[in-house]
Design brief:
This protein has 67 residues and is mainly beta. The protein has no helices and 4 strands. It has a 4-stranded antiparallel β-sheet with strand order 1-2-3-4, with no helix packed on it. The model has no long low-confidence stretch (mean pLDDT 83).
């Protein structure tokens, strides 16, 4: 009989309630999010590791673009 392994996803709030914007890098390896708390988080796609935090943004973020 085959053994089935199930991976359990865990919630990870990146930003407080309110608008959250996101984009993937062109190669799909990173997910970048920006929220109403003026923080930017950079996640590695497929990784369960903690994101890189960029918390010193000067203004409210209203859009993201990755190149």
């Amino acid at each position: 009989m085959a053994t089935v392994t199930t991976q359990r996803l865990r919630g990870r709030p990146a930003h407080p309630s309110g608008p959250t914007f996101l984009t993937y890098t062109p190669n799909g390896r990173k997910l970048i999010t920006a929220g109403s708390n003026n923080a930017i988080r950079v996640y590695t796609t497929g990784s369960d590791g903690e994101p890189t935090n960029i918390d010193d943004c000067q203004e409210n973020n209203t859009a993201l673009a990755a190149s």
